[in-house]
Every structure is written in structure tokens, then in C-alpha cells.
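User: Okay, second chain of the day. Same drill as before: sequence in, C-alpha cells out.
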Amino acid sequence: MAARRNNVLAEIRFLYLLIYSVYFACLNFIPYRLSILIQYDGPLFTSLGIVGLILLVVDLFTRRNLLRIPYAEIILLFFVVFGVSILWNFKYQFMGNVKCMIWMAVQVLYLGGADPDVAADRHRRHIRIFTNVFILLWFIGAIWSFGQYLVQYSAQFDLILNDLPDTLPMGFSEGRLFGVFIDPNYAAVCSLFAIGFALYNIRKDTPVWAKIWYAITIAFQGFYVILSGSRTAELALLVVSALAGAFLVPGRF
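Assistant: Same drill. C-alpha cells below.
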């Protein structure tokens, strides 16, 4: 009975993480921002935070996975200090700071608090589904952006970001590919994640068609990283390459 309950909670947690990740990934697409109506998007954003907080409370009274995260006491101490800081600065956007702490708690504690008593195969299946969904989503953005580069499409759009009006370029502008993304630096780093996820999913038993798909994904994500001209992504790639070399080379030789 306990194992079945743990599995059900793990599936609910995974479903929430998947919806959460897809939603926040879509927020980085300019076409999505242009297509939504703020009055309909706001409740969805708030609902995700409320559901995440409820799931945290349920976890606290059932599995307490958030307390089994490595160095959990340091993380919890951080949130205690965070809460004291909010109370100390009560007159400065109190509700905004509370919302920020709730979102950070959901991200740090719930995203990181995987149930260690659930079978490893179930966790690996969740990781494969999550990474493949992200790969597909970011591939759509990368190939769409690459198409804009081929036709030299360039435009500017007015959006509301962080409750403030802003004008963002889309397509190929100022000698770099912004594409369909709000921030090309953030998008390029996410492209590196997509490349890493694709490499993670390529195994000996991976079907040939899937390997071809991952190879295409890696190619277009690489195109976007190069054309975006993101120095942030270049620095991240150098750091990852150095760390990979440091860990893999000694084991290889």
C-alpha cells in the first residue's frame, strides 16, 4: 500500500513538473506572448504557484522528501532568512516578495525533492519523457528561428514583461539571430541543455530513427547557438567542456 501511494505521489509530482516546465518554456516564445490574453494567462500563472504550494504541504505531511534533499538544513535556513528579510522590509512590495519566496520554494524544494523510495526505473522514465518534451519544444523554436534567418526576417513587437512595457526584436537583427525567443542569451543556453538532453537519450538500444532525430536536433540547436552570438552560451559551453574533460578523460585513459 505504501509503495503504491509513493508511486501515485511520484506520478502527480512528475505531471506537475511537466506542466510547469512546458508553461515556463512557452513564456520565452514571443509568438506565445503575442497570442495570449493577459487576463487569461494570469490565473494560470497563479494557479501553478498555488498547486505547487499545496503539493509542498502534502509532501511535508506525508513523505517529507524536501527534508531529504542533500544539505536540506542549509536550504531551509536560507528560506528562514528570506522570510525574516521579507518581514523586515515589510513596506517594500510585501506581497511581491512573498510570491517570489513561494515560487523559489516550489522550484528548489519540490523540483529537487525526488522520492528516493520510488524505483529508479520510474525516475529514469520520467527523466526521458521530460527531456524529450523539452527537446521537441525547443527544436520547434530553433528551427522556426533558423527559418527566419534564411529569409532574413526582422521585426519588433511591443510586449509586457515584468509588468512593464518593452519592445523586443524578433528574427535576425543587429547581426545576430534573436529568433522567436524573448532573450537570445537565455535561449542559447537552453539550446545547450537540449543538446545535452539529446546526448543523454542516445543509448546503444536507441532506435535508429530516434538517433537520427536527436542528431537533427543537435544540429539545429548548434546552429542557433552560433547564430545567436551569445557570449553567455559560449562561456557556458567552455565551462561544460572543461568539466566534461576533467571527469571523462582520466576515466578513459
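The longest strand covers residues 164-173.

User: Thanks, on to the next one.
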